[in-house]
Amino acid sequence: MTRLPSLFVSHGAPTFAVEPGRAGPALAALGRDLPRPKAALVVSPHWMTPQPRVTTSVLPETIHDFGGFDKALYEIRYPVSGHPEFATQTVELLRDAGWDATADPRRGLDHGAWVPLLHLYPEADVPVFQVSLPTSLDADGAYRLGQALAPLAGQGVLIIGSGSLTHNLHEVFGGAEDVAYATEFSGWIRDAVVEGDHGRLRKALQSAPHARRAHPTTEHFLPLLVAAGAAESPRPSTVIDGGVTYDVLVMDAFLFGAASGSDTEARVQ
Fold first, then answer.
1. Which ranges does the record mark as transmembrane (predicted)?
2. CB 249 within 8 A of CB 36
């Protein structure tokens, strides 16, 4: 069975659903190039709980967990199936790794999941379930969470950490005169990803240039570490250039590893 790589996506603002920019077509191309997953598992900062929870619904609803945007965004539905079998297995994997995980049969998909999936799998033909982000998580904990989920990749599950490579909302809505910091921070992260230096990634919020400005809070960076932790090995890794929106939201995605026995890594560069 093909072992899938893991993926980090920058999901941007909710408007990414209707304003694909550079990142939307890049994710669509990636979705076509990757081997077809049996399911996608998404970890998003828009669902945080004290301990991990896992969605086990058969038909997860589309959650519009944002306000103040054009009404067209609230009319979008992502009519995808869930995957209760893989979700139940995920609860057991997390418990075996020491997490106090529980099933959640009612929770739908937040916009950190369905917005990028609109581009990655526009036909909504890959079942999706979510794992919540523990509220007390730090960088090392996020990496360990990914390691606990990693066995699913060998069963055909695409593990996706959905966050944001930069996430200073004050500057998104209030404007910023000097925006070079965003590309300096993201460039440092890109280098660590390409070099396979996961130790450096885990220290990024302390060591990377402008880290505090790029991430005043940590929750949108931690899904990157979940995806890195879920990888079979630190290399190969691939950058999917998503450009920049709102001057300071870097929309890059990272693919950690190539599908075993495939030429996927060569095709998505």
1. none
2. no
Which residue, chain included where needed, has tokens 């400005």?
213
What is the longest distance spanned by two Cα atoms in the chain? 51
Taking the CA atoms of the chain, what radius of gyration do you get in angstroms?
Answer: 17
Cβ pair 122, 28 in contact under 8 A: yes
Question: How far is Cα 20 from Cα 11, in angstroms, rounded to an integer?
Answer: 10
Q: Whole-prediction pTM value?
A: 0.94
Write phi, then psi, for 39 (nearest 5 degrees). -165, 165
The tokens of 219 are what? 């929750």
- Tell me if 143 sits within 8 A of 225, measured CB to CB: yes
pLDDT, tens digit (0-9, with 9 covering 90-100), for 215-269 = 999 999 999 999 999 998 888 999 999 999 888 899 999 999 986 544 443 333 3
Task: Kindly list the structural domains of the chain, giving each domain's residue range(s) and its CATH number in brackets, ordered by start.
Answer: 6-268 (3.40.830.10)
To the nearest 10°, report the CA torsion of 71, 72, 75, 81.
-130
Tokens of 265: 């890594």
Query: Could you identify the residue written with the tokens 């306000």?
Result: 67
